[in-house]
Amino acid sequence: MRPQPLIAVHDVEASSRWYQRLLAGESGHGGPDYERLLVGGQLVLQLHSREVEHEHGRIGDPAAGSYGNGVLLWFVTDEFDAAVARATEMAAEVVRAPHRNPPDSDDGPNHREVWLRDLDGYVVVLASPDGEAGPWP
Q1: What are phi and psi of 42, to 5 degrees?
Q2: Is 33 in contact with 46 (CB distance < 8 Å)?
Q3: Same domain membership, residue 134 and residue 77
Q4: Phi first, then psi: what are they for 99, rounded to 5°?
Q5: 59 in any annotated domain
Q6: What is the Cβ-side half-sphere exposure of residue 124, based on CA atoms within 13 angstroms?
């Protein structure tokens, strides 16, 4: 089983460009209503317009405020430093700067994370693989 999250966004094409750049991915569909984002040929995220109903109805309420309250879009990458560099180049809003998780022990994933906010207010976490940060000194 593989997750294929779908989020409601204000501007599918702008969000697609943002995520393609951040994740070093590519469009798997394109267009103003719906997008499939691919990384290494694998579907990692779907974007859908808040305004478009299609046959299933609206994905989100366009009158609602920010989206994703309590939702984190979490991506593990083998190229953490390159991903952080792309986020910096993009001037992505940083929620939590790059850090080790856990910060002070070996009791946990021992990886690095950076938390960002996308164009619609969703929190996006980029993480290195578990164990990548090595043992706590």
Answers
A1: -105, 140
A2: no
A3: yes
A4: -155, 165
A5: no
A6: 24
Strand order in the sheet with 26-27: 6-9, 42-49, 34-39, 26-27
Q: Does any domain span residue 77?
A: yes
Residue 133 has pLDDT above 70, yes or no: yes
Domain of residue 114: give its range: 71-137
Q: Measured in whole angstroms, how far is the alpha carbon of residue 24 from the centre of its chain?
A: 11
* Domain of residue 18, CATH code: 3.30.720.120
Let me know whether 9 and 46 are in one domain: yes
Does the pTM exceed 0.90? yes
- The string of pLDDT tens digits covering residues 84-121 is 999 999 999 999 999 999 999 888 999 999 999 999 99
Domain count, the chain: 2
How many Å apart are CA 7 and CA 2, to the nearest integer? 16
Residue whose pair of structure tokens reads 């946990």 in the numeric block: 108
